[in-house]
């Protein structure tokens, strides 16, 4: 197995890495430009991107749209031809309106997870923006491929398989996570690849399989390539970069974390999540945290009796409050310093090539 270029929306990168979208306000234009300049694909997160705007609580959708356009414009001013996408959670309210809005933007793809985005092609099929999805099982991939095929005659530009070591919301139940009854990322990739083959043959196309969740270094990347992945999605590693849009306090919570500091918590979204242990995670063991306001962000949030407001706590942490919610991947404790994106990418690729016994070029 070797490293092959990754092609998305008619554009190609020689390094098959996608920088994953992280919210709230963690992966925006600064990180995106650094990633594109380093030769990889970049994803910004649409999640409550307008959180810091004065009018956010009164008009969250309006402010989010304003900030999305601003961030995309900042990227395209510097990198008009780089491969750029937006992560748009399917669990958000008004998913359809956000997807239609993004279909008019100068981006290459929308990638959607946190639910089954069965309807995504409806909003982008007549645009230049491509659709992709994130799944945590081959079964979910099968459902989505079958639906997109039958309803829209449309196929994803790529599929991200996300394993149980991912950061943020996890695509597995609390019970399965606690019992260990979850598939490894390698197995999810292998099974999904077999299902995708059917549709690749039907449409005469290639649908890249991207492995994400717990991919930290070159050895992890090589392991995914060896089981059939066409590339990898890396997120947490890029938080600890000088260029990441996150507040320095957030970055240092990642850098200073120990293995015992990486914990799972419940989310108002109804899924388990992974975060850095801090005041918030410890308080939640005893009591819920009072909700100050609600912007009606998630379809799955019950609003009453929830442990905390996820928009408020993620937004606070992105603005520098290290008592807020610090989402992270399972291997965050391996990070011990801030570094530049280019250095991170070069190290990952160097170690991946060594692991794959690739001595020459790509």
Please characterize this protein's 3D structure.
- By secondary structure, the protein is of the alpha/beta class.
- It has two domains: 6-248 and 335-355, Alpha-Beta Barrel (TIM Barrel); 252-318, no CATH class.
- Helix content is 36%, strand content 14%.
- The chain contains 13 helices and 13 strands.
- The protein has helices at residues 29-37, 60-78, 95-102, 120-124, 138-152, 174-179, 185-203, 218-226, 236-239, 248-255, 279-283, 310-318, 341-355, and strands at 6-8, 11-13, 17-19, 41-45, 84-87, 109-112, 130-135, 159-162, 168-169, 209-212, 231-234, 262-266, 272-276.
- It has an eight-stranded parallel barrel with strand order 3-4-5-6-7-8-10-11, surrounded by four helices.
- A hairpin with a 5-residue loop joins strand 12 (262-266) and strand 13.
- The N and C termini lie close together (11 Å).
